[in-house]
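Journal club prep — side note

Before the paper discussion, L.F. wants everyone to see what a predicted structure for a comparable chain looks like in token form. Sequence:
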Amino acid sequence: MVPYAYQPDVLGPDFEQRVLPQPPDYEGPVQSTLIRRRPRGPRPRRAVLYVHGFTDYFFQQEMAVRYEQHGYQFYALDLRKYGRSWLPHQWPNNVRNLREYYPDLDAALAVIQAEGHRTVVLSGHSTGGLIAALYAEDSPNQMAIVALVLNSPFLAMHQNWLNRHVGVPLAAAAGRWLPGLKIPANLPTEYGQSLHRQYRGEWDYYLPWKPIEVFPVTTGWLRAIHAGHRRIRRGLGLTVPVLVLHSTHTVHGAGWTDEYFHADGVLNVRDIHRLAPRLGSRVTVRPIEGGMHDLVLSAAPVRARVYQELFGWLQATLGE
């Protein structure tokens, strides 16, 4: 389907968005949304496409500026049923198979290539990191992807033994027959509080799209994630260079602690570190001391380290 023209974006005059219409699914009409930082001067040879996490959307403007400063045209994708792409008749974040996101990525890459960028760095955070890795393995567009950058990718459930080995598989199995059944996402509200400036954080974003208490999930979504995690455990065969960044520590215990400012409050970083090498043959893993779950929302000195690692790796991997 033909995408629409660029329109003004909620992030202000430095950004613009373009709706990417998609065929209807089991909930009705579907769209995704491509966001780009407005081009300035000559078109860079390279571009980056960023994919957000769960109960999330693109708002990390500083990241876009940093990529632009290093010679990349910046794009981000709000996947179907997230953020800018969420339509009134849809349950937020709801899919039944992670491959449902592939047409969103296909359409975004088609626009990016049509705008003159033949090689693209694909970047994903958390659930977006899982989706990006699977897409890079499966997509016929994989030749356009020159590198994969994953920020705290969601490679395994952060659950206790009973939930991980019994509860999640049972709920995922129910997703085959009752894909619309809703269950609590069971993610700590403290993580959102550590981010948004109305609570304890330094960032401003639109809470209806990224609420402090995350949306319940469907068993169909859980089944899709569970299938993706099984593929990660078996191992992918990515030959593209991959950079995996994650915090050095995970927040432990219930209730608020200042550890949320200095550790991953969503995932178990040991799982990320253990599973990342299974993504492919050219994986670099870089732990970041003091990093939050979304590393680019960490404290300023930590963000500086994140960008140093990121652009140093890109320079070493891709050259000029």
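L.F.'s comment for the group: The longest helix spans residues 300-318. Keep this in mind when we get to the figures.
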